[in-house]
Structures are given as structure tokens and as C-alpha cells.
Automatic annotation (TrEMBL):
Signal peptide: none annotated. It comes from Paenibacillus xylanilyticus. Its main location: cytoplasm. InterPro entries: CheY-like_superfamily, OmpR/PhoB-type_DNA-bd, Sig_transdc_resp-reg_C-effctor, Sig_transdc_resp-reg_receiver, WalR-like, WH-like_DNA-bd_sf. One of its GO terms (molecular function) is phosphorelay response regulator activity. Keywords: DNA-binding, Phosphoprotein, Transcription, Transcription regulation, Two-component regulatory system. This is Response regulator transcription factor. Residues 133-232 bind DNA. Coiled coil: none annotated.
Length: 232
């Protein structure tokens, strides 16, 4: 089973470093830099654990934890440069499950994550996600824009550049209906002529790679007379 981590950290370099480390350890990681983005992504990504900074733009980390706790008991690890006892106690009282002070070792971060997952009776990854085998029907699609990779059931799927760009746009906007022209504009811009007669071919190829039954699509739906949309 591949564990999904939602990382909320406004320091981009630190977020990139943590995300890269976790992905090397076999986790599926989505990272955002703002609380608003986290709240939007949370129900779609459905993480197994949340790692969030205390000090965030737009919303305090404690308020974000409180928002998550309105709907979920997902394990939450708070990270912060603050070493004040009151900050740690407030985070824990507010619903965080653990608190880690910056700077920290990435190996300690991994150990804290695994400890929280054990407490939640969720198995954690011993091998990279690419070695996992997909289930046949209870699938999950995830797009990692940082590594430009597409996962189905935690297994990395090989896609072309254009297929990834199409999937990225659909995945970013679940439920939105894209016309073929909109997809072409977003993917190739001024080079859209290259795609004029092939957008349907790329969609067909994507379906073969991510759908349990490509003839009866579960994720990429055709909206007849208009275009396509992504359904979670």
C-alpha cells in the first residue's frame, strides 16, 4: 500500500526537499504552499497523513488543523521553527498528533510519520511505490507535477509529454468540462495545430493506461458535443 502525504509548507525550497525525500522513500506526495490550496486539495487527494507548517499565509496552521478536524481524523504532524512550549501545546490541543521543531532530520521526519501511521493502523511503505501492484477496480489516480509523474493505485504509469499535460489540466479541475480547443490551447499554445486532429487519440491512449475499463471510462468522461472532464 502506498501512503499519501499532503505537505503544506510555504518555504518552497524546504517543501521541495521534503517532497523529494518522501517520494524517494516510496510515499505519494502532494505539496502546497497555502492553507487555501490545502483545503481545496484535501477532499480530492484524501491523504493518509498531513504534514503542515505552523506559520502559513492566509491561515494559521492551528486554524487549518481545526478545519481538517471538522471532517477527518487523518494523522497530522505539525512542523515549525518555534521551540516555544506554548506553541507545541496549543498545536497538540488543537488536534495535531505530533509536533516537530525545525531544523529537523529528514530521517526523523520519516520516523515520526511512520509512528503516526502505526498508531492509526495504516501500513507504511517499505519499498518504492513503483514496485506495488495495482488493484483491478478500486483505483486511485494521482498527478505529481513536481516530478511530472502519473500514478494509478500508487504505481507510476508511463505517459508521453502531451498525455501528462492533458491529465494535469483535467486533474487540476475535476468536474470542469474542457472543449478540445481549450485543451489544445493550454497544452501547446501557439503550436496547437500539432494537436488539431490528435486530441482524441491522446485521450484514448490515456484511458488505456489509467482506466479499469477504457470502454466504460471511470475517470475521463466524454461530454458529447463539447469535450472531456475528469471525475474523481
Amino acid at each position: 500500500m502506498s501512503i499519501k502525504v499532503l505537505l503544506i509548507e510555504d518555504e518552497k525550497n524546504l517543501a521541495d526537499m521534503i517532497a523529494f525525500f518522501l517520494e524517494e522513500e516510496g510515499y505519494i506526495t502532494e505539496r502546497v504552499h497555502h492553507a487555501r490550496e490545502a483545503l481545496q486539495l484535501f477532499p480530492r487527494f484524501q491523504p493518509d497523513i498531513v504534514v503542515t507548517d505552523l506559520m502559513l499565509p492566509e491561515m494559521d496552521g492551528n486554524d487549518l488543523v481545526d478545519a481538517f478536524r471538522q471532517h477527518s481524523t487523518v494523522p497530522i504532524l505539525m512542523i515549525s521553527a518555534s521551540t516555544m512550549l506554548n506553541d507545541r501545546l496549543r498545536a497538540l490541543h488543537n488536534g495535531a498528533d505530533d509536533f516537530l521543531c525545525k531544523p529537523f532530520s529528514l530521517k526523523e521526519l520519516d520516523a515520526r510519520i511512520k509512528a503516526l501511521l502505526r498508531r492509526s493502523a495504516i501500513s507504511y511503505p517499505d519499498k518504492p511505490a513503483k514496485e506495488d501492484k495495482p488493484s483491478e477496480d478500486t483505483g486511485h489516480v494521482s498527478v505529481n507535477e513536481y516530478r511530472r509523474t502519473l500514478f494509478v493505485n500508487g504505481v507510476e504509469i508511463e505517459v508521453t509529454h502531451i498525455e501528462f499535460e492533458i491529465m494535469k489540466e483535467l486533474y487540476r479541475n475535476p468536474g470542469k468540462v474542457f472543449t478540445r480547443n481549450e485543451l489544445m490551447d493550454r497544452i501547446k499554445g501557439s503550436e496547437r495545430a500539432y494537436l488539431d486532429r490528435t486530441i482524441d487519440v491522446h485521450i484514448s491512449s490515456l484511458r488505456k493506461k489509467i482506466e479499469p475499463d477504457p470502454k466504460n471510462p471511470r475517470y475521463i468522461k466524454t461530454v458529447w458535443g463539447t469535450g472531456y472532464k475528469y471525475v474523481m
